UniProtKB/TrEMBL annotation:
Keyword Nucleus carried by entry: no
Residues annotated as domain N-acetyltransferase: 3-150
Stored InterPro entries: Acyl_CoA_acyltransferase (IPR016181), Bact_Acetyltransf (IPR050832), GNAT_dom (IPR000182)
Keyword entries, A-Z: Acyltransferase, Transferase
GO molecular function: acyltransferase activity, transferring groups other than amino-acyl groups
Species assigned in the record: Aeromicrobium phragmitis
Name this protein carries in UniProt: GNAT family N-acetyltransferase
Amino acid sequence: MTVQIRGVAAADETEWSRLYAGYRAFYQLDNDPQAVQTTWEWVSTAQHGFVGLVATIDGTVVGLANLRRFARPSTAALGLYLDDLFTAPEARGAGVATALLREAAAIAAGEGAKVVRWITSADNAAARSVYDKVATATSWVTYDMAPAPH
């Protein structure tokens, strides 16, 4: 049972969409097929600087990672932001997330990026146990602000 990582392909749409809907459900987001479809379009066509990865085991898509490039003015460097990472429940514990994260690091290195960054829920202990093995948690706190006209 070897995990293989590759870029998304058009033929992955159905399996990717199932996994992405699972990701959204995990984070208690509304069931929104349009959001899944829009994200697929962005990821599969590299819009907005997205890089879409899938993990397969025996030819079946069992994980996904959606990354996008960003500029870091404070260091005058580029980075990759990991927006989404998800492993199918039946494939958890098989090294899927670690393989996806290693590929993200390799892409960053190949592009000259200086960091791969992401956020996760503070109570996502299972994911954090993986992340703590490959990355360093930071002290930064994340805020969200709603857009508002002047």
